[in-house]
Amino acid sequence: MSATIRSYRGADEGALLELWRVTMTHDRITPSVWRTKVLLDPNFDPDGLLVAEDDGALVGFVLSLVRRVPYFLQGLEPENGWITAFGVRLDHRRQGIGRALFDAALARMATLGRTRVAISPYTPNYFIPGVDVEAYPAALAFLHAFGWQTISTPIAMRAELTDFQIPPVIADLESRLRRDGIAVRSVQPTDLPALMAFTVEHFGWDWYRFAQEYLLALFGAGADDIGCWVAAHGEEIVGYCQHRRERFGPFGVAPAMRNRGIGRLLLFNSLADMVSRGFHCAWFLWTGQDAARLYHLAGFRQMRQFAIMQKSL
Questions:
Q1: Contact call for residues 251 and 270 (beta carbons, < 8 A)
Q2: Tens of pLDDT along 147-191?
Q3: Which DSSP symbol is given to 10?
Q4: How many domains does the structure of the chain reveal?
Q5: Nearest to 132 by CA among 24, 250, 16, 17
Q6: Cβ atoms 297, 264 nearer than 8 A
Q7: Domain-located, residue 292
Q8: Fewer CB in 10 Å around end: N or C, the chain?
Q9: pLDDT tens digits for range 8-55
């Protein structure tokens, strides 16, 4: 192998972004995204961003992270590491560069005490849930060849909203739930204490972060881009969903209240709200096959499928 593996340097930014563009062809990013989601991430360490250099040019990279600061009460997760992006230029593949990059990244994480590495559900700054199985089949084959296991296969979906209407069956469902004391409505400031506790209890700290980010905008500047709905059973919050412009979610219902149609009502009301704000589609990056059946009812169709992958060290 003629390439040299080294740590990222500040002067590499332009070459690294060009390398990202030609290798992660379905997930290109802007310089501002690079700086905010990578360089300004408190867990970023230049030694975790390894690049392969050949004759002065960057030909491969792998971005790995471990927590250096706690993530809310989720803590440091000292056993976990993540790889969120990687690639090798097409004309430099099959020369051992990818293997050398991964070996160096995994060795570093092992020395830091990590025993499990995943591609790539790192919060808060993941780019895509895992390896897109259709866009990057060579990457998937490469990882399987070196012992990585697929542990789940989330899908991304999209719905066109131009002709969206709430069907009568959903209106009937809303009436039935109201008779049971369950109301789906826009979030109010008085909901905030119960809503934030609900997200942590049922869905964890990353959902809390998403809700917090959206609600800070909803009750401050930028509210025209934000929609947030809750399902309330009396004073108790039992479900919520949100959107920022055309990006939908996350949304969820308390486990004890599922299978009553609450999720359907939240979904349809949120989509109707998006239409009223002038948005012409809705999309998200991550759901499972079971939840996808609900989204299909609202016109969502699968766009991509990912493989979240894991390797023990």
A1: yes
A2: 999 999 999 999 999 999 999 999 999 999 999 999 999 999 999
A3: G
A4: 2
A5: 24
A6: yes
A7: no
A8: N
A9: 999 999 999 999 999 999 999 999 999 999 999 999 999 999 999 999
Angstrom distances, CA of residue 2 to CA of 92, 95, 99, 137, 287: 10, 8, 13, 25, 41
Do 168 and 118 belong to one domain? no
Q: Are 265 and 142 in contact (CB under 8 A)?
A: no
With H, G, I as helix, E, B as strand and everything else as coil, classify residue 195: helix
The verdict on residue 289 lying in a domain is no
Q: What is the mean pLDDT of residues 255-274?
A: 94
Q: Enter the tokens of residue 67.
A: 């927590």
By residue count, the chain amounts to 313
Tokens representing 71 are 């993530």
Residue 141 maps to a domain: no
The answer to whether residue 236 sits within a structural domain is yes
pLDDT of 214 > 90? The answer is no
Short-list 7, 89, 12, 109, CA closest to 56: 12
The CATH number of whichever domain residue 23 belongs to comes to 3.40.630.30
Residue 230 tokens, joined = 């809750």
